[in-house]
Amino acid sequence: MSYKKTGRFDKRKADELRPIEMEVGVLPNCTGSARVKAGKTTAIAGVYGPKEVRPKHLQLNDKLLIRCYYDLISFSVTDRARPGPSRRSRELGLVIKNALEKSIFVEDYPKSMLEVFVEITEADAGSRCAAITAASLAVADAGIQMRDFVPAVAAGKIDDLICLDLTKEEEDVHDGGGATDIPVAYIPSIDEVTLLQLDGKISSKELIEAIKLGIKGCKKIHEMMGKTFKENYKIKAVKE
Amino acid sequence: MMEIKVKDKSIVTPGELIAANVEFSGADEEYRIKMNNGIYKKGSNVYASVVGIFKENGLKVIQLSGSYIPRQGDYIIGKVIDMSFSNWFVDIRGPYEAGLRISEASTKYLDTDKYDMSHYFDFGEYIFAKITDITDSKKISLSCKESGLGKLEGGIITRIDPSKFPRLLGINDSMIDMIEKLSNTKIEAGHNGLVWIKGPAEGVKKAKEAVKLINKESHLTGLTEKVEKLLQGGKK
Fold it and tell me: Cα(B229)–Cα(B235) distance, rounded to whole angstroms?
C-alpha cells in the first residue's frame, strides 16, 4: 500500500496542517497564559515570573533561569496515563526549555526565574509541538523581552509519503516503511531550528525534505501566533 | 534611509519587522537599543521584542502586558516582609527583594535604642518608597526621604497591571487627580502596580472600580470620559 497514491486518513494534503485554534490570556492568575488546539491535541500553558529564584542554589547570576514543566493529564490519552511526573515529562520539560531559551533575551533578567507550566488536556500526537507553541505564546503574553515566537510542528513520513503534522493514527502505521515522526521548532526572525527530534527510520535525503517541510509549517503557525495577539486586543476593543 | 514597515499605533508582536535600513551609531550584530523600548536590532533591521502598541514617534513599542521590572527612580508600594538590625526587606512584586536602610527610612532620626524596628515599619505594613539604586547584582535600595513617602496608614490596596500604570497616572497626573477629586479619596500609585486608596467607604469603592476599569480598557481611546462617567454616575 502506497500512501502517496491513497493519500492520508483524514484527506489532508501532504503539507497541510490540522486546524489550529489559539487563545491567549486564558488563566487569570498567571503572568501570561495561552491555549493551543491543533486537531485533537490541546495544550494549555501558564507562565509565572520573572520572580525570585527558589531554590536559591539554582540562581544564575548573569541570566534568566527558565524552568519548564510538561504534564500529560491522565484523561488526555485513551489508556489512562499515570498521573504525576515521569521520565517522559522531564525530558519534554527540558526540550521545551531548550526550544524557548534561544528566543528569550535571558540576559535582561539576571538572578530571576521564569516558570512555564504546560498541561496537555487532549493528546493526539504532536503534543510537544503544541506545548512549545502554547508556551511561547504564554511567554509573550507575560511581556518577556523576546526575539520572536517559537512555532513548532511535527514533520514526518508515513510509509513513503513525507507529510506535515501527523496524527496518532498516522504515527501508528506499521505497513511498508512504517511511520517516522520529526518534531521541528523554528524561530523565523533569527532563522534557527531549536528543536529537532527523530523517531523512526528515514533516509538522509528524505530527512532534509521533511525538515524543510517542517520549517514551512512553522512559518504558517508563526503567522497565526501573531494574528492571535492582534485579534485578542481587537476583540477587547470591539466589545465596548 | 529608514523605512517604517508598520502603521503608527498598531499592535505589534515579538519578531515583527518594524523598520528596515536603520542606521545606529555603535551598531553590533544584535544591539539592544534600550531595554525599555520594546525593540531590538539585527543587522540594519529593527524588530519588536514585546507585544505592544507601536509608536512611530521615538521608535518604540509600548508594552501591553507583563510583570514589574524595577528601574531606578521608580516610586513603588511595597510590603515589609522581613527586618534585620538596621534594614527592612520589602516585597515590591518584582523579581527581586528590595532593602530599606534605617538611615533612608525617614527624614527624622529613628532611634532604635528607644524603640524596636517594628515600631516604625512592622511586618505586613505597606510603604510608599522610591528606588534610589539598583546595582549590577540586582540589589535594590529604597528611600523614603521625600515628602509624601513613608508608611501608608489605613486605606486599602488594590492592583493594576504594571504595564498599565502610565494610563492610571494620565498626562501630568491628570487621571489620578480626577479620580481623587471625584471620589473624594487620597490615592498613591506605585510603578509596581499596587494602588493605595484611602477615604470614605463610598469613595474608596468608586475609586477602586475606576482603577479596575482602567486596568481593563487601558489600550482604548476615550478612557478619561468613561472613568469620569463612572465616577459621576453614582452621584446623580
Answer: 10
Sheet with B60-63, side-by-side order of all strands: B11-12, B52-55, B60-63
Pairwise CA distance, residues A114 & A141, whole Å: 13
Q: Which amino acid is at B81?
A: I
Torsion of CA A110, A101, A144, A60, to 10 degrees: -10
Q: In angstroms, rounded to a whole number, what is the distance separating the alpha carbons of residues B235 and A55? A: 52
Closest CA of chain B from A138, distance in Å:
11
Q: What is the mean pLDDT of chain A?
A: 92
Is the pLDDT confidence value at A12 over 70?
yes
Listed residue (B16, B119, B134, B127) closest to B73, CA to CA: B134
The answer to whether residue B40 neighbours chain A at the CB level (below 8 Å) is yes
Examine the predicted complex and report whether its ipTM is higher than 0.95.
no
> What is the per-residue pLDDT across A28-67, written as a single tens digit (0 to 9) for each?
889 999 999 999 999 999 999 899 898 999 999 999 999 9
Q: pLDDT, tens digit, for every residue of A85-142?
A: 999 999 999 999 999 999 999 988 999 999 999 999 999 999 999 999 999 999 999 9
**pTM summary value:** 0.90
Interface A-B, measured as beta-carbon pairs within 8 A, has a size of 102
Peptide bond into A55 cis (omega under 30): yes
Q: Is residue B73 classed exposed, middle or buried when 0-12, 13-18 and 19+ CB atoms within 10 A define those classes? A: exposed
Cβ-based contacts of A143 with chain B (< 8 Å) = 50-51, 63-67, 163
> Taking CB atoms and an 8 Å limit, are B220 and A32 in contact across chains?
no
Question: Do the Cβ atoms of A162 and A4 come closer than 8 Å?
Answer: no
For the sheet with B186-189, list strands across it.
Answer: B156-159, B194-198, B186-189
Q: Which of residues 58-87 of B touch A (CB under 8 A)?
A: 63-67, 69
Q: And the C-alpha cell for A220? A: 504558517
C-alpha cell recorded at residue B98: 528590595
